[in-house]
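Field reference: sequence -> structure
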Amino acid sequence: MYILGINAYHGDAAAAIVCDGKLIAAVEEERFNRFKHCAGFPEQSIRYCLEAAGIGLEGLDHVGISRDPSAHLHKKVLFAASRAAKEGAGLISQIKDRLGNAAKVRDLKSELARVFDAPKSRIRAQFHNVEHHRAHLASCFYVSPFERAALLSIDGFGDFISTMWAAGEDNAIEILGQVEYPHSLGIVYTATTQFLGFPHYGDEGKVMGLAPYGRPRFIDEFQEIVCTEPDGRFHLNLDYFRHAGDGVEMTWEGGSPKIGQIFSDEFARTFGPQRQPEDQATHEGRDKAGPVKGAGRTVGEGRTGCGNDLPPSGSDEVSPARMRNDEGDHQARHYPAEYAIADFFQQKHSGAAAAGDVRLDIGDRDRGEQ
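Structure field:
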């Protein structure tokens, strides 16, 4: 059985292919077109994967993508309606862009047929839209050596969710909790990265690299920005951010992704003037980077009753989040969240689930995508 996993219409467009549980190929589109973090549709990556597998489109059994536009739809509608009531026509273009992006995610079969100049009837594969964070969780657990583990996924936003934690056992994943839009540690990372003078998509890695060299001078300020809750959740002080109130322009079509300014003027009032990209990096910038990483670790500490920790993350950390079992003992493994690999390993099990071999336990909390 051949399964193709795709990350498309988002940063780091990529594809991967697996046959009967064995990885054949995985590659990002940027390796072909040389656009860093390339967005759009990974045409060349898919061609490479099919060539490596020695098959054509007709040889695929399943195709998966790590987005599900229908997930948490009622949350998206309610949020859009509340913003529209405040902003009116100013929100229309953003909504049109989001709907257009979601429509493409929903219609992968048509795009594959168009790109390969083939009739849709030639493609016999089943198509799967996998909720974003479930793909992250599956990407680490199903390839780990553990039969039972605590799972944590943290990133910007995917399907209206920014953070999800779960317990994995055998071939089941039970979702235990999540944090929804507009609260996100990934947004804190991106806003701080922009404020420190690194404007490009993916520059968060530079701030993570700076963080260990900083001194803990701004911990109190960041604790005012990221507020933790007793049950392991958190919320943001939205005065520091523009994404929930004003909205932020994002471009995911071809080339490198572009994201507008996320931080508000409150950052400058609290931390002083914004660093410009051409300015020399200073010790103060490193000191501002450090607490962001610390906030991620603090939020990541929780109890699931599992002794093994598997924290994938949409933004790779310098050190993994810490999740402890009831006895305080744990093993931790950090799996960088390569979207495409997350897709096809999730689809390996999702395909089986259709036949009744695998269950994904959803839990009783239906929360939130953007």
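Note: The longest strand covers residues 148-158.
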